[in-house]
Design goal:
Strand order of the largest sheet: 2-1-3-8-4-7-5-6
Radius of gyration: 21 Å
Number of strands: 8
Distance between the termini: 64 Å
Structural class: alpha/beta
Helix content: 40-55%
Largest sheet: 8 strands, mixed
Amino acid sequence: MNDTTEPQHWTKVLKALLLLMLSFALTTAGAEEYYERYDLRPQPGVIRLAVQPMAYPLAFISSVMQRDRILGGELDKAQLKLQVFAFRKGNDIVQVASESAFDMAFVGDMPTVNLAVRMPIAIGGLGKRNFSSVISRDYARLEELRGHKLGYSPGSSSHLVLMHGLRSAKLSERDVELVALDPAQMPDALESGAVDAFSAWEPTPSIALARNPRNRAIFKGMSTDWVVLRRSLTTSSPAVAQSLIAAYVRAINWMRRSKSNLEHAASWVLQDGQAFTGAKSAITAERAMEIARKDLLDVPGAPATPPLVDGAPPLSREFAFLKDIGRIASDRDDKPLREAFAYQGLTQVQADPKRFSLFRFDYAR
């Protein structure tokens, strides 16, 4: 073997070994997923919140809500207590979803569609509207990824964006080698060469772009996140559902009130993320705040449940796309999704800001 081919040979061997290690780690984790340790059996007197500490800006809303003394007092009066369950990604919430598993959840567009198909839900409002990105170092266009390894998070908003991107490049998922990864693994996998690109939501793209100046976003697609409630909660305990919605609105109003408030929220987000992952965040508080401003606080009309998104009913295009590619049965209609968006809880809460304390704040610091 000559001097030119030998390094190439060992580079290929190293990439294969790294990919094998990642696959082994995921397979091992899949044997006993972390969320299987959660006790999600029906339990009276408990309101369950399903959160994603590593999904921005959703984590800003949930971290602030967890520290809301007004919400805590209202739940106390109803003889209820709040329990918070953290998830790595929205599809993990879908995996455990049942009508008793959670009362409110923060999930992306594709998991929201899948939840609506699986169980009766109510949409409490828009959690964010921003871009998921495909990040690569050595390739400038999706067309160049044919036959290459591409990291993704199955069943997520960024998975949906990836499928849209591949279709626009006249590729299918069979034309690339998809590697299932948790978002936290993606920057390392790209840096090591275990994958040639990955698709993810914030803050993962920002982490990768800051790590290596050669990394770049080669495709972006709009995605949305939603505040989802168990529909039976909205009918059996409408006042409790309204208290949760009010806390969601109040969190946004409080973060908009001052830079100091947003800084407090960012510190809680980083603290909650570290408590969940066991590792210090790779993103700075300043960058986290930028994401929260751009994707949530500066979105006109937020908090809201928009009747149309880019000229179509919310998530209707996503539902049709998932049917078109066989991810949802062809005989399913979008009635569960339309019923989810018919919930008027947010409108009712915003119509009476004094009653629901939308501009009165009390957070544990």
